[in-house]
């Protein structure tokens, strides 16, 4: 039986926070590690320096991605908390003005003036702060930031994404390594784009085109740098 409690469970929006962090991490892991390896491979005739640079980049990148995601999402959380504290103060010091603002919000959404006022009164009586957080600030359970979840999803996804080009480096021929990396990385990006689109319910074709085009540009520029500064290592 479909109820308001379970109706939204199947919607994709519930996945938006962790999916964004995971796709960003995996995409960054695949592209940055592949680009790094391609740049080194373009200037190297042996496998060891390519592996060393790749492993170092993988470890540093995963930690940096997790830390960066945590810091950025925590900043968003701090901003949300500051606005909530401000709302608490305003509800205490100017309740009538806050009620009027709430009524105006509902009126702009399409309710008649009298109905909007009545809705604002009833919701304020039930949960004034929760109502203002949701309808005035636009913060709800789905959109609310989660720093730990974002950091773990991003760091883990970067690691998984970065391991894929590392496997190519370990087993592909050193000769023309950059071409092997480019070919397999393109495949990895196609799989990532399709998986992300499938999970998020969006267009698979658009996701694949977007992720492969930008990945190709990044790898091409890295290979160019390797050739330009092609010191033998």
Describe it.
The chain is mainly α and 233 residues long. It is built from 7 helices and no strands. The protein has helices spanning 16-41, 48-93, 95-108, 113-135, 147-171, 177-200, 204-228. 30% of the residues are buried. α1 (16-41) packs antiparallel against α2 (48-93), α2 crosses α4 and α2 (48-93) packs antiparallel against α5.
Structural class call reads mainly alpha
Task: Summarize the amount of helix as a percent range.
Answer: over 70%
> Which term fits the overall shape?
elongated
Share in β-strands: under 5%
Major sheet details: none
Number of helices: 7
In round numbers, the mean pLDDT is 82
Number of DSSP E strands: 0
Which series of helices and strands comes N to C?
A: HHHHHHH
Distance between the termini: 66 Å
Poorly predicted segments: none
What is the alpha-carbon Rg in Å?
25 Å
